[in-house]
């Protein structure tokens, strides 16, 4: 398989967890390189539903090594909770199969308090964050005031540094009218968590390079999506990390020339959680999908906003990520429709454009230009081979390839591992 990056082509929730889980069969090492417990990957295997936030989904396989890279922000309590839940479901997690980068930054309770305080202050301009402290944790990292995971192996230093940080951040938290983070209680809780996590902490760049030298296959599991990228997304309605393929390199220490393939995962329609512009948003599709019990967030349970496939966005995402292949997910969500639309360009102040504008005001001023396709009106969920898809579904997919410039290699027609078709 060689070294592959999987990214989201839209606003996250494209079903990357399932695609990654499928590709993992050929991988030896699975890496998470960006984001934090804001992500929510759902994988259903043998009827059991596993929800992953920080831990790479490779953990569900017996023989895979999983790495949480330096680009991730790590919530020690969040990961321990996740480990406990997975273990209760029979998943084996040890210091041998889960390695955490020494230089990943820690998400602390004051980051969560600040996340809530900042959202409250934004009023109607709120971003709709997951409340997991992601933005404030990355802000501390960039500002050079963060605490890194290596401190979990140095309790004496951690205790002093953490106490200082809590006191310092509490000034801002109290000024925002929010309850201060209890100093001693938090220090003790973090020290207890540190003890449990310390055996997992190591130099993961070395782990990755040793694996590459030994001829192993690496899989970089993306979190969130291209349009939540801090640089390339719909700023400021984005997350605080580089969710695009470049982030896999900076977030792991594996250089670009060692990457062989990029797969972009894309829903057959579009969804978005949280605030921000969404050109093809359509409430009728949202109602239809929600009535089917679909499109509720794995992390927050929020109903996702829904709309038609925006091929302008996806084409641009293919370009930014250097995607060789597309994995289309949730095609079965469109099964009941008479007519299916795809947005193939935007009209901005009378001019037709083929890429997303950079400002929120311009994106909001864009009108979608749609083309119409006849729906296949058949249940796809039990199909076992690509060749057996209805012709109308094949025509829809062919058009998606033409519009986005990437070949479709995988197709999702349901939540289970066996509902992924190889194209
Ligand atoms: P944050 O990452 O919690 O700061 O949230 C920033 C924005 O990214 C919000 O609109 C969130 O809903 C969105 N977001 C963060 N993680 C995910 C994800 O895994 N899937 C979908 N949206 C996400």
Task: Summarize the structure in words.
The structure is a single chain. This protein is α/β, with parallel strands linked by helices and 423 residues long. The chain has three domains: 4-101 and 201-262, Adenylosuccinate Synthetase, subunit A, domain 1 (Adenylosuccinate Synthetase, Chain A, domain 1, 3-Layer(aba) Sandwich); 105-197, Adenylosuccinate Synthetase, subunit A, domain 2; 265-422, Adenylosuccinate Synthetase, Chain A, domain 3 (Alpha-Beta Complex), CATH 3.90.170. Helices cover 32% and strands 21% of the residues. The protein has twelve helices and 20 strands. It has helices at 16-23, 76-88, 109-122, 134-143, 155-175, 183-197, 204-213, 245-250, 283-291, 311-321, 360-365, 391-404; strands at 4-8, 29-32, 41-45, 48-52, 65-68, 73-74, 98-101, 105-106, 201-202, 218-221, 261-267, 270-272, 305-307, 309-310, 325-329, 339-348, 351-353, 367-374, 407-412, 420-422. It has a ten-stranded mixed beta sheet with strand order 9-7-5-2-10-1-11-15-19-20, sandwiched between helices. Strands 14, 16, 17 and 18 form a four-stranded mixed beta sheet that branches. The protein has a two-stranded antiparallel sheet with strand order 3-4. Helix 5 (155-175) crosses helix 6. The radius of gyration is 21 Å and the shape is globular. The mean pLDDT is 95. The structure holds inosinic acid (IMP).
């Amino acid at each position: 398989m060689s070294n592959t990056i999987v990214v989201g082509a839209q606003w996250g929730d494209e079903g990357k967890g399932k695609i990654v889980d499928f590709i993992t069969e050929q991988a030896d090492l699975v890496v998470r390189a960006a984001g934090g417990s804001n992500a929510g990957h759902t994988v259903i295997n043998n009827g059991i539903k596993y929800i992953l936030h920080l831990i790479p989904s490779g953990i569900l396989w017996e023989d895979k090594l999983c790495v949480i890279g330096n680009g991730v922000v790590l919530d020690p309590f969040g990961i321990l909770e996740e480990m406990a839940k997975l273990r209760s479901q029979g998943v084996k997690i040890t210091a041998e199969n889960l390695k955490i980068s020494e230089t990943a930054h820690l998400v602390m309770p004051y980051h969560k308090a600040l996340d809530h305080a900042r959202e409250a202050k934004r009023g109607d301009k709120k971003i709709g964050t997951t409340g997991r402290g992601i933005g404030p944790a990355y802000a501390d990292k960039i500002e050079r005031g963060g605490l890194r995971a290596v401190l979990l192996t140095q309790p004496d230093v951690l205790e002093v540094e953490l106490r200082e940080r809590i006191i310092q951040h509490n000034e801002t938290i109290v000024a925002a009218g929010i309850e201060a983070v209890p100093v001693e209680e938090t220090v003790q809780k973090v020290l207890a968590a540190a003890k449990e996590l310390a055996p997992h902490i190591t130099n993961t760049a070395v782990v990755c390079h040793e694996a590459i030298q030994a001829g192993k296959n690496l899989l970089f599991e993306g979190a969130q999506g291209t349009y939540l990228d801090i640089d390339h997304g719909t700023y400021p309605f984005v997350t605080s990390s580089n969710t695009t393929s470049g982030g896999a390199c900076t977030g792991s220490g594996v250089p670009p020339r060692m990457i062989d393939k990029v797969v972009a995962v894309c829903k057959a329609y579009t969804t978005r959680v949280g605030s921000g512009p969404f050109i093809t948003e359509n409430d009728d599709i949202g109602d239809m999908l929600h009535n089917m019990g679909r499109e509720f967030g794995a992390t927050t349970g929020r109903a996702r906003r829904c709309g038609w496939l925006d091929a302008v966005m996806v084409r641009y995402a293919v370009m930014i990520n250097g995607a060789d292949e597309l994995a289309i997910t949730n095609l079965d969500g469109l099964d009941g429709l008479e007519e299916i639309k795809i947005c193939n360009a935007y009209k901005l102040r009378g001019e037709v454009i083929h890429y997303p504008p950079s400002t929120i005001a311009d994106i909001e001023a864009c009108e979608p230009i749609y083309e119409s396709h006849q729906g296949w009106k058949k249940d796809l969920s039990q199909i076992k081979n690509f060749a057996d898809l209805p012709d109308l579904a094949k025509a829809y997919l062919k058009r998606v390839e033409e519009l986005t410039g990437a070949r479709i290699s995988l197709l999702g027609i349901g939540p289970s591992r066996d509902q992924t078709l190889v194209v």
